[in-house]
Specification:
Blueprint: E1 9-12, H1 21-31, E2 35-40, H2 44-51, E3 60-62, H3 68-72, H4 74-80, E4 90-93, H5 110-135, E5 140-146, H6 158-177, E6 182-189, H7 195-198, H8 203-207, H9 210-213, H10 224-234, E7 244-248
Parallel strand pairs: 1-2, 1-4, 2-3, 4-5, 5-6, 6-7
Helix pairs in contact: 1-10, 5-6
Length: 257
């Protein structure tokens, strides 16, 4: 099969519905020739059902990124689904979570904040190092999802802080994995009406007017551009790009108002 990911094996986390960025990244990756493995947490049957909507149904591995036993066994679980060799060429980290109190900056307790940072930022490093035995001899690409953490957004609150931690984690991970030939980058996508968005109180306030502010326009219902951006970074077309945040937001991050 031809395509910019031909012959590559990619692990994709965070596929909950076929409207998610992770699903579209998996779909485009398959269309570009990759073998895809998915992970799920909790409702595995739902992820398995969504997997069947891909061009080719993908195997699903259970993974709770806060569970060290799951992380310790991840490389072996991936090997079980490998059709030829035991390597991995890319990882998509599409995992974020914050308790409801994390969306109230002044009232949030440390327990809420620590959960948000653990799941949304530390897990990026934890996932990469769990997969390192499959990548360190061949190199590859780790791609995560962020929401521009250079400014303070309405209602996003401690999740914004967690994303800032994620963006810093990406830089340090790029520093330490670069000598192994592994690139680490983030895609900063604009707001989308997804399962994740439903957990953000006042999401409409955050997304309101995004299309009008974006020089290229922005469709709140289309995760396709972000999915394609992820696949681009997974490919060999960015061989010297690491530690970066690539904006797929219609250009809003460049606008003053």
């Amino acid at each position: 099969m031809s395509g910019i990911l031909a012959g590559k094996r990619i692990l994709v986390t965070g596929v909950l519905t076929d409207a998610s960025i992770a699903f579209h990244a998996a779909k485009v990756a398959q269309e570009e020739g990759a073998e895809v493995i998915l992970t799920g947490f909790g409702r595995l049957s739902l992820v398995e059902r969504i997997s069947k909507r891909l061009p080719k149904p993908a195997p699903v591995i259970e993974l709770d990124v806060t569970n060290q036993e799951h992380l310790d066994g991840l490389a072996d679980r991936i090997r079980e689904h490998s059709s030829d060799d035991t390597g991995l060429d890319g990882i998509v980290h599409s995992i974020a979570f914050g308790p409801q109190n994390a969306f109230n900056f002044l009232q949030a307790e440390w327990e809420d904040v620590s959960t948000a940072v653990h799941v949304s930022a530390y897990s990026y490093k934890a996932l990469a190092t769990a997969c390192l035995p499959l990548m360190e001899e061949r190199g590859g690409s780790v791609v995560g999802l962020t929401f521009d953490a250079t400014v303070a957004w309405p209602v996003y609150d401690w999740m914004g802080v967690a994303k800032a931690a994620l963006e810093s984690t990406n830089r340090y991970l790029a520093r330490d994995l670069g000598p192994k030939g592994i690139r680490c980058n983030l895609v900063s996508a604009g707001p989308l009406k997804s399962m994740a968005a439903k957990s953000i109180p006042g999401f409409e306030t955050l997304a309101d007017g995004w299309n009008e502010r974006a020089p290229l326009g922005w469709d709140l219902t289309d995760p396709g551009p972000a999915g394609r951006g992820i696949v681009g970074l997974l490919s060999d077309f960015f061989p010297s790009t690491t530690g970066s945040v690539v904006h797929v937001d219609g250009g809003v991050h460049t606008m003053g108002v």
